[in-house]
What does this fold into?
Amino acid sequence: MTGARKTLWGAVATVVVVAVSAYSAQSRATSPKEVRQLAGSAQALQAREKTSTAYSPQGTAPDPASRSRMMPMGAS
It folds into this structure.
């Protein structure tokens, strides 16, 4: 095989691999039923509880002093 043929076959093989990968990725999406199950899991509930304690009960942002502890330097 010449160099041009090898390059052509390499390009065709790459396109086929990418196409098969993209097609198979669609079938691996999380189903709505699974999402509901995961959202109700103990781990998800604990994460939500932990996140909600970082803010006041009224849903407003925390005071500026605590904000500086949560954000890295230079972030606004």
